[in-house]
Amino acid sequence: LIDNFRPESERVRENPAQLAAGRLGHDDSLHRIAISPGFDRSTPGADTFVTVVMEQLLGLTVQKRGRELEIGKALYDARIGFWSAIVLATAPGASFSSALISTDVPLLLFWSAALLAWVRLLQSRSWGWALALGGAIGLGLLSKYAMLYFYLCAAIHLWRAPEARWILRDRRGLVLLILPALLIAPNIAWNLEHGLVTFTHT
Fold this sequence. Notes:
Layout lengths: L1 H4 L4 H4 L1 H7 L4 H9 L14 H14 L7 H6 L2 H13 L1 H6 L6 H21 L2 H17 L5 H12 L10 H23 L3 H5 L1
């Protein structure tokens, strides 16, 4: 990340050496990059910095350090979770999209967060996971309307897994509709005021 962006700040240019010497932590290094006054024109630039950060957050929803290999472990086992994280980290599309500003990156981030929340909600029936799922779907919709396909995937899962259909009769299920609707409402209102330009473009 540091080598790719090469911010203009001399303080940030010292990051790789200080990291290698153990005099600087990763969190402090990222903070220096975030507050750097500018980026070299020969590299992607500050506008794609957020994309790279989102790619790393996407990885955390698949593999959460050594404590849990989140989605893969929840659905299968730790080995599947580990290799899922490796595949994600080395996928050519992930590297390529890190150099672009694209709605696909936040969409994938919130989709993976929603998938994790969906699995945990069905396992624990927790209100916390219900709110997390509703929030992830709503933020995913703000990133790209393709997040709506998550509902189709959830419907197919419920069709194939009768034991999960309790969500259809539970108030937690309403959260999965109401919270995303509240989050996307300002976007819909703006579109109605501007001739549904987003839908026309899509």
